[in-house]
Amino acid sequence: IAEEGRPQAMLEAKDLERTNLSNFLEDRIAAFLAHERRVRAKNCGKRPDQVPTAEGITVRIVNANDKTFSMLPNFREHFASQGKRGGKAAKADASALEYRSKTLLLFQKVEGVDLCLFCMHVQEYGKDCRQPNTRRAYLSYLDSVRYFKPDNITAFAGPGRCSAEEPKPRENPN
Fold first, then answer.
1. Alpha-carbon span 3 to 57, nearest angstrom
2. Which of 41, 72, 80, 167 is positioned for an S-S bond with 92, CB 3.0–4.6 A?
3. Which residue ranges does the record assign to the CBP/p300-type HAT domain (predicted)?
């Protein structure tokens, strides 16, 4: 049954397919936020249930496709003519590289709406890929927005701090 006001065909972030990676990341984030909440509560002399915490966090891999990077002939000729690059011989036959493209999104439900707060797009090259890309991951896009709730949880609250607000600048002793 659909939530009131939401078309039945519109999925929520939590309804998107789960993966081992999304489960792992959600568990790690939940553990970190629980620890952070306990530390803030202790620093404030309160119980953990008396300090706000982030809720409604969902991590999903929304795209995971195998792709091929094809090198243009001019680039291939240039690198082949260089002979060596980084101590490894350039291969004239390295015209295509297989990789997996993944897009990871982090959502937080705020007032009934799933807000996408973080996006990361990577290219993963496996053990069978040629050097120098063997077992490498390249971060091709990263973005985030500042709508995380509660908004004072922007960094871990260190010892002696009651919240995660930015520390005040220190006075210059000179």
1. 19
2. 80
3. 10-174
Query: How many residues are present in the chain?
Result: 174
Both structure tokens of 82: 């260089």
Tokens of 131: 């050097």
- For 107, list phi and psi in degrees, rounded to 5: -115, 155
Q: What is the SS3 assignment for 64? A: strand
Percentage of the chain surpassing pLDDT 70?
Answer: 74
Q: Is the peptide bond before 169 cis (omega within 30 degrees of 0)?
A: no
pTM, 2 dp? 0.71
CA atoms within 13 A on the CB side of 35: 10
Q: Give the tens place of pLDDT for each residue, 64-100.
A: 999 998 888 887 788 777 765 544 444 545 678 899 9
Residue 22 in tokens: 């999304």
